[in-house]
Amino acid sequence: MLKIAVEKRASTVVGHDHSLSVFLRLVRPLRKLSQRGGVEVCAASTAALLDHGGFPYDVLFVNRPTQSENLTLIRRARDAGVPVVVDIDDWMYTLPSYGKDLLRERADPARELYDLAQAMTLPTSFFAQVMAPVFAGQRSVLPYGFEFDGAASTSVAEADTRRIILSSMFTLKLGRRTEAFAAALRDFLDRFEDWSVDFYCENYATDLFEHPRIARLSPVSYDDYLRVLSQRRYAFCLVPLAGYEEEADLLFNACKSPLKFVDYSANAIGGIYSRSPVYETVIEDRRSGLLVDNTYDGWFAAMGELAQNASLRRELSTVSHDVAREHFSLDVSVEALRRTLDTLLP
User: H-helix or E-strand containing 304?
Assistant: First the structure.
């Protein structure tokens, strides 16, 4: 029996115990792997893992920012001859002790963690390339694994709706282009009076998005959010993200994961996405999504085109759904994880 320990990181997502990134890319695929037999998974806090005498596991995955007890756990695993894998996502770089400069030069808080780890797992191949200068060990891509059971199918007829979904956990990450996007959205709704927007967001500039047909909705748990998507209430989605116009944030945003594309596409909801590297790597423009520059004209034109072109909406829905099934299913994630483990263990 192969015993795998996963260091649990607290979630910032409503109603979720694990960090959502860690759960979708690591914990859920590991649990799926354990169902096939021969693998036992323990996902617990750093303190709980340290409570065990010695280190009764065969592999350790760590994903919390470097703290003293975190390093204690890693050293204990290494003293026991257990391989350590550090799992990295963009969340770790929002912390002051790391910061975006970690992507440019090796930051002191992470130095010892990287020196002790044998391998690194990351959500995208681009991120893996970026981390090459700061981590010399094995780097493996673990994509998000979507469980397609219960997701909407492209065989479901398009709902007779004129509703659009826009969501952001905390605030829109558009930087200086937020006002242009908001103005385009307001003007679109003024011109197309039978359309409306559901905006799931915890914190945003209310005045910028003030409109009779923009409904401000509080964030829901991830499971509830997926249930909403599976009901096909929406004709298309809007996914803004700062791109090439925000040079200071470009590298950081490029290392994000295409989670929104996966969630929407898995539920056969086509959409409009910012022309930002994270989406350019997974979207074929006008086939699996519309890619737009973060300008007023770009967003306004794209929203108007999709509102008037049901055929294009159906194509984006169908093709994006196929892309999600091919590249982001749970089986794909499990296989990537299995390959990573095979390289670490005799």
Answer: helix 296-308
- Same domain for 22 and 91, yes or no, is yes
| Direct distance between the N- and C-terminal alpha carbons of the chain, in angstroms, rounded to an integer | 14
- Plot region of 248 (φ>0 → left; ψ -120 to 50 → alpha; else → beta): alpha
**Tens of pLDDT, residues 58-77:** 999 998 666 678 889 999 99
Handedness of CA 271, 273, 278, 20 (dihedral sign): negative
- The number of folded domains in the chain is 2
The backbone region for 76, taken as left when phi is positive above 0, alpha when psi lies in -120 to 50, beta otherwise, is alpha
CATH number of the domain that 232 lies in?
3.40.50.2000
Rounded mean pLDDT, 192-199: 97
pTM more than 0.85: yes
Same domain? 118 vs 23: yes
Nearest to 176 by CA among 91, 279, 295, 258: 295
Rounded CA-CA distance 130/135 in Å is 10
Radius of gyration of the chain (CA): 21
Q: Quick check: is 152 in a domain?
A: no
Which structural domain, as residue segments, surrounds residue 259?
163-327
131 lies in the same domain as 209: no
